[in-house]
Amino acid sequence: MDVWLASSSPRRTQLLTQLKVEHRVLLPGIDESQFEHLDPIVMVRALCVCKAKAVCERVSTGLVIAADTTVVYDNEILSKPRSKEHAIEMLSHLSGKHHKVITGVVVMDATDKRYRLGHSVADVWLSPMTSTEKEAYVATDEPMDKAGSYSIQGQFARFVERIDGDFYAVVGLPLAMTSRFLADLGYQF
Question: Which domains, from first to last, does the chain contain?
Fold first, then answer.
């Protein structure tokens, strides 16, 4: 069975490879800004479905996996940084504090458009970061394409004090949920 990943995220590709799910990447090419005004949970779920539908329009069979991750601090969505200065600003908000990471995931059958949709919310606590530590981390370029300006599985791990929730959802793809959805729609592991 063909599996399509509607994402350019190398992390999501690595996670699917970890599960031994052979897949191909096909970018959805949608305007994500149309969803920015929504509640964060509604937003990630709506974006997943929109991405999956966009890819389903271009393939005739198989399963399409789409995901979206956002970071929420003090009721504000922290998306990907626009610049290194913006990344430092976001890290300053998060330093020494607690925030939420919300990841939505959908698996959609390209043939009949049946799908399974869910989301995972993880609480993340970070240790305080000095200005020098923030600047050095941003200089690695690791945070530049990540919601909230950090990669939990990368060098930033040294600042993560605690996680309540699915670690893989913080990385960008809740693996247990994704596996269950794939199985529900006929994928055999």
Answer: 3-184 (3.90.950.10)
